[in-house]
C-alpha cells in the first residue's frame, strides 16, 4: 500500500490518497492510514447518494461499521462535487478505512481523501 502523496511541501504532515467506489457498489477499496487520520474528502460531481459512513479494520480483511462512543454510526451528509472536512477524532486509532455511500454508483467514482500524519 502506498503512503499517499504529500499534499503540500510546506506542510509535510498532509497527504492525499484516492479510493474508488466501483460501478454498482457502495463500498470503496481500503486505505491504510499508516499513522495518519482522515481529515477531509473531495467528492466527484457525479457521485450518487447523500451520506457517507465508514468501515474500519485492524487487518484489512475484517471490516466493521465505524461508530462513535454514543453508539452512532460515523456519518457525513454530502452533496455531489463538494469538499468536506472531517474531525480526526472520528477515525483516531483506525488502521484501515473504507468509505460507504448510501447509494450504489452508476459508474466508478474516485474520491480524494485528505489525511494528516499523527506527529
Characterization of this structure:
The protein is mainly β. It has one domain: Jelly Rolls, CATH 2.60.120. It is 0% helix and 45% strand. A five-stranded antiparallel β-sheet has the order 1-2-10-4-8, with no helix packed on it. Strands 3, 5, 6, 7 and 9 form a five-stranded antiparallel β-sheet that branches. A hairpin with a 6-residue loop joins strand 5 and strand 6. The mean pLDDT is 92.
Could you describe the largest sheet, including whether it forms a barrel?
Answer: 5 strands, antiparallel
Total individual domains: 1
Q: Report the order of strands and helices.
A: EEEEEEEEEE
Strand coverage percent: over 45%
CATH top level class name = Mainly Beta
The mean pLDDT is 92
**CATH architecture descriptor text:** Sandwich
Poorly predicted segments? none
Secondary structure category: mainly beta
What is the CA–CA distance across the termini?
Answer: 20 Å
Number of helices: 0
Strand order of the largest sheet: 1-2-10-4-8
Q: Output the radius of gyration.
A: 13 Å
Shape: globular
As for the CATH topology, it is: Jelly Rolls
Task: Please provide the count of β strands.
Answer: 10
Fraction of helical residues: under 10%
List keywords for this structure.
globular; five-stranded antiparallel β-sheet; 0% helix; single chain; 119 residues; mainly beta; Jelly Rolls; 10 strands
